[in-house]
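Hi all, posting the design record for the shared folder.

TITLE: backbone redesign
STEP: 1 of 1
STRUCTURE INPUT:
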């Protein structure tokens, strides 16, 4: 499991011109799954994301977590985070989980995030989405379950 997280101000995802998810501030999470991902991977990554101290305190130091800051999550499924660009000119996606398996994992991941009493907005799994955000910092990290 791999999630690219970006600290964000206002962010939203639209599908066919309709807003499907929107947050005021928090984290935009681009979420991908690979073969063998399971509930343990989801638990590890979700816990890491909500507790990672990447929000600033009163002194401007990254000292607060998403939970401390009262932030929200915009979770967007994105199999391309497992794209392999090392050979040729067309990325290979053989490391990405099959869509039916990934959809179930994505739903479980979002539910796990919600179990921390975090508001989680989402895109639409498998849809062509437009994501807009105000990257705060910018602050961007990759959280990997392996």
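Okay, here is what came back for every position:
SEQUENCE:
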């Amino acid at each position: 499991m791999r999630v690219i997280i970006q600290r964000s101000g206002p962010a939203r995802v639209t599908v066919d011109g309709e807003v499907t998810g929107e947050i005021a501030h928090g984290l935009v999470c681009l979420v991908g799954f690979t073969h063998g991902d399971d509930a343990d991977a989801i638990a590890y990554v979700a816990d890491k994301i909500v507790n990672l101290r990447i929000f600033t305190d009163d002194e401007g130091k990254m000292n607060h977590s998403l939970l401390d800051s009262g932030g929200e999550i915009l979770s967007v499924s994105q199999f391309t985070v497992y794209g392999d660009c090392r050979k040729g000119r067309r990325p290979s996606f053989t490391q990405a989980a099959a869509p039916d398996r990934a959809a179930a994992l994505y739903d479980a991941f979002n539910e796990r995030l919600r179990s921390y009493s975090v508001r989680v907005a989402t895109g639409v799994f498998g849809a062509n989405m437009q994501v807009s955000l105000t990257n705060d910092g910018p602050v961007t990290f990759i959280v990997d379950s392996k």
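COMMENT: The helical segments are 39-51, 66-69, 99-114.
Let me know if anyone wants the other runs.
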